[in-house]
From TrEMBL, chain A:
GO terms classed as biological process: methylation
Binding residue positions for S-adenosyl-L-methionine: 142, 168, 198-199
Pathway linked to the protein: Cofactor biosynthesis; ubiquinone biosynthesis
Protein's name according to its UniProt entry: 2-methoxy-6-polyprenyl-1,4-benzoquinol methylase, mitochondrial
Stretches the record annotates as Disordered: 24-67
Keyword hit for Transferase: yes
Family classification: Belongs to the class I-like SAM-binding methyltransferase superfamily. MenG/UbiE family.
Catalytic activity: a 2-methoxy-6-(all-trans-polyprenyl)benzene-1,4-diol + S-adenosyl-L-methionine = a 5-methoxy-2-methyl-3-(all-trans-polyprenyl)benzene-1,4-diol + S-adenosyl-L-homocysteine + H(+)
Documented EC number(s): 2.1.1.201
Record carries keyword S-adenosyl-L-methionine: yes
The protein's assembly and partners: Component of a multi-subunit COQ enzyme complex, composed of at least COQ3, COQ4, COQ5, COQ6, COQ7 and COQ9.
Main location as per UniProt: mitochondrion
GO cellular component: extrinsic component of mitochondrial inner membrane
Automatic annotation (TrEMBL), chain B:
Protein name: Ubiquinone biosynthesis protein
Function (record text): Membrane-associated protein that warps the membrane surface to access and bind aromatic isoprenes with high specificity, including ubiquinone (CoQ) isoprene intermediates and presents them directly to Coq7, therefore facilitating the Coq7-mediated hydroxylase step. Participates in the biosynthesis of coenzyme Q, also named ubiquinone, an essential lipid-soluble electron transporter for aerobic cellular respiration.
Membrane-spanning intervals of the chain: none
Similarity comment: family membership: Belongs to the COQ9 family.
Subcellular location: Mitochondrion
Organism: Cercophora samala
């Protein structure tokens, strides 16, 4: 937790100042020239956002349009905005998840992990013990999925031969995960590693470095990379409530395909569409568009980040479309290719990299 | 669809218009194939419209239509049996089929319908221990569903090979008995694990799949037996067979007799009972119908305005 504090303090001052947080008042922007033109009022006037945007545009290739909630922005702008959103919410992330979903996100995550069954190996195997299993948890930030994976592999399946890499573009989120991981058993901590990476290009990574000053940018800059994730090196690629925020989802899926071994499994837990049940869906939509931004404002002091959250859920492709995107990346799916949770509020998509 | 005559005319028109001769063979080959297609009603939604004289043409899809189906379409489903079109591809993708077939053939007889069977099959195919988890929330239920599906699909092939069914000397109810028995016999290699499989498929999350497969099986049996009923007995026949099949399947898991002869006798007794019961219900229905209309007519003759 302590490591995340500085990041929080410098997080999007104007986002907070819009909503009655006096301590941020003195940090109001001094000038507003030539920054991005987007429709969300407070995000467009954030000085920290503008800085972030400029530094990313220098490192990324052609900027195409994508969306940020209901606004249309360029990919690099979205990257910076998502970075600032998550920097801003890192500290209260888990508390907010509980409040927004009535704690139900824990059930989803437990189900996600136990159905993937990491570390399982048949006792009667004639070919001896299995090779080590490498799990890559993308956008794993606070470690929710990774810690469950480790527990399932080490404690439930009694297989210590499983290691987990948590990757996130945002150091503030990773730092929260890092500090939470200190309460794990030592054997599990030893099997855990943290890297900063952009999921759209996993050939450039950097081990997590602590955030020392408030001036440092909290999202990963590929030019500072020290390593990379090689081809065909991962058994299980998971991304839970993360892929929605990616600027270029097909690129991320192609990277997943690249790093997975043949036979490796891609698994994605993400919010989805519940419109098969109109009545339930209308209640759910009321809750997400009215209550969640309000809870965000009251609890995390940050309405706009949670407004973005619900808008990005709305913009995310339907189950079928996302399944087709996964197939387009080269994966093979089972049956219809996804599993609805809670009537489709969330969905798990699974795919396997076939052996060709 | 163009009628054969129209196609034939267009073929003639092409010749008159002196189109390149390379076009002709393809165009002219159509009328030869079309009459067989056009003479049957392909719009009929009845699942029972297949004449018995034509043994399962749906099993041999024309080579032209079996080449790669459009990739972007959702899995095709059809709610009726077609005599003119190949069956839809089914709910299993090719990669799944490979893995599940290996597991079913090589490991299920030893390890049962369990995750180790799937993991060992994945190793056989040089995949990873984690690979079976792409099969969805319950890989073992998927494996059992695959067995149910392949056994049902195999029934149509068996029906074309079985002499008694081809000879045409059997009545519909005798064919139903024989086909049900052929289906039951397909559980033989895995019979010691079948109680376990039934337990998995009885879990609430699997009940819809299990019930659907059972209904499809009953429908398949009556279709292959050549039943052509289009009255409410369409439902009662299939409902009764579903119940009898499920009971016989359970009976078979504890049957120690030679060649499961006790199971076959059990099946015959149950079908016999269903037929007798059906006869009774039918007779009662006829009596009630006759008496009611007679009663109405008596009242009418007395001047009651009904």
């Amino acid at each position: 937790m302590a490591a995340a504090r500085p990041a929080l303090k410098r997080a999007i001052p104007s986002l907070r100042s819009t909503f009655l947080l006096p301590r941020q008042q003195q940090q109001q922007p001094q000038c507003h020239h030539h920054h991005v033109t987007i429709s969300r009022r407070s995000l467009s006037t954030s000085p920290s956002l503008r800085n972030d945007t400029q530094s990313t545009t220098t490192t990324t290739t052609p900027d195409r349009e994508t969306h940020f909630g209901f606004s249309t922005v360029t990919e690099s702008q979205k990257r910076a905005m998502v970075a600032s959103v998550f920097t801003s919410v890192a500290d209260s992330y888990d508390k907010m998840n509980d409040l927004m979903s009535f704690g139900w996100h824990r059930i989803w995550k437990d189900h996600f992990v136990s159905t993937l069954n990491p570390g399982f190996a048949p006792l009667s195997a004639p070919s001896g013990p299995s090779s080590p299993q490498h799990i890559l948890d993308i956008a794993g930030g606070t470690g929710d999925i990774a810690f469950r994976m480790l527990h399932h592999a080490h404690a439930v399946n009694a297989n210590p031969n499983v290691k987990v890499t948590i990757s996130d573009i945002n150091r503030a989120m990773l730092s929260v995960g890092k500090s939470r991981s200190t309460s794990l058993p030592a054997s599990q901590q030893a099997a855990l590693s943290f890297v900063e990476a952009n999921a759209e290009d996993l050939s450039k990574t950097r081990a997590l470095t602590p955030i020392l000053s408030q001036q440092e940018q909290t999202f990963f800059d590929p030019s500072t990379a020290t390593g990379g994730i090689p081809d065909n090196s991962v058994d299980l690629y998971t991304v839970a409530f993360g892929i929605r925020n990616f600027s270029d989802i097909p690129a991320a899926l192609r990277e997943a395909y690249r790093v997975l071994k043949p036979g490796g499994v891609f698994a994605c837990l993400e919010f989805s569409k519940a419109d098969k049940h109109p009545l339930f869906n209308s209640v759910y939509k009321e809750w997400s568009f009215r209550a969640i931004p309000l809870i965000g404002q009251l609890v995390a002091g940050d309405r706009d980040s949670y407004q973005y959250l619900v808008e990005s859920i709305e913009r995310f492709p339907r189950q079928e479309e996302f399944r087709d995107m996964i197939k387009d990346a080269g994966f093979t799916v089972s049956g219809e290719g996804w599993e609805d949770l809670t009537g489709g509020v969330a969905a798990i998509h699974r795919g396997m990299k076939p052996r060709v | 669809m163009a009628s054969p005559a129209a196609v034939h005319c267009s073929g003639a028109a092409r010749r008159i218009l002196l189109l390149p001769t390379t076009v002709r063979p393809a165009t002219r080959s159509l009328p030869g194939r079309l009459p067989a297609v056009a003479s049957r009603s392909i719009t009929s939604p009845s699942s029972t419209s297949r004449p018995q004289s034509r043994p399962t043409p749906k099993l041999q899809p024309p080579s032209s239509s079996s080449s790669s189906p459009p990739p972007r379409q959702p899995l095709q489903t059809r709610t009726y049996h077609s005599t003119t079109h190949p069956p839809p591809p089914g709910p299993f993708t090719p990669a799944e089929t490979t893995l599940l077939t290996t597991a079913l053939a090589a490991h299920v007889p030893t390890h049962g319908f369990t995750l180790p069977s799937l993991t060992l099959a994945a190793r056989d195919l040089s995949l990873l221990d984690i690979s079976p988890s792409f099969l969805g929330p319950s890989p073992t239920a998927r494996l059992i569903h695959f067995h149910l599906y392949t056994a049902r699909a195999a029934l149509a092939r068996l029906a074309t090979q079985h002499g008694d069914l081809l000879s045409g000397g059997l009545s519909v109810s005798e064919k139903v008995e024989l086909l049900t028995w052929l289906r039951l016999k397909q559980n033989e290699p895995v019979i010691q694990h079948w109680q376990q499989a039934l337990a998995v498929m009885a879990q609430p999350s699997q009940v819809p799949t299990a019930v659907r497969e059972l209904a499809l099986l009953a429908d398949e049996v009556y279709f292959l037996a050549g039943d052509k009923s289009v009255d409410p007995s369409w439902y009662t026949k299939r409902g009764a067979l579903s119940g009898i099949y499920a009971a016989a399947e359970l009976f078979m898991t504890t049957d120690k007799s030679e060649g499961f002869q006790e199971t076959r006798r059990f099946l015959r007794r149950r079908l016999q009972e269903a037929e007798e019961l059906g006869g009774v219900v039918k007779s009662v229905g006829e009596w009630v119908g006759f008496t009611a209309s007679a009663g109405v007519n008596v009242l009418r003759s007395k001047g009651v305005r009904i």
